[in-house]
Amino acid sequence: MSRIVAAGADSLVPFFAYLNAQLRENGAGASPLFQPLARAASVFGPERQQAFRQALAQELSEPGWRRLWLALDGADEICGHVDLRARPEGMTHRVLLGMGVAQTARRQGLGRALLGHAAAWARSQGKDWLDLEVLACNTPARRLYQGFGFVQTGWTMDMFRIDGESHDYVAMSLDLRGR
Fold this sequence. Notes:
By secondary structure, the protein is α+β, with helices and mostly antiparallel strands. It contains 4 helices and 7 strands; from the N terminus they run E-H-H-E-E-E-H-E-H-E-E.
């Protein structure tokens, strides 16, 4: 069974290694594209790592904040993550969700547990909505989100051109007020 912990600054080096391992699976083999990145360029490079670090250091009252939780397996290896980040000014009642689960930990309830953890934290911070965006071709993720209660709020056709292919983007939201 996995446990979910808040990530600190000391967690970021192993988190970025985990994330880059995950990104190597982006659209590889039978895995759907889950990030709007070219398959050969699916890396979380130094610039993005620095921006992530800066956002984690932001106070919740400041724009641009981000919070991260890690799912650790019995050997304390990262097997999943969920992060929430601030929406633009005027949307402080909403947060944007990102998450991932290692291939070896999928279909065991970890994605649902991560969503539950993120939703509980967002509610505790007075947030009313969780928002996310997902590539339309990522059917397993969309099923997970729908099963948790997210509703589709938008569909952008031909949002990305990745490796010469057109990809649609789906917006989904979860109303936290009645949960």
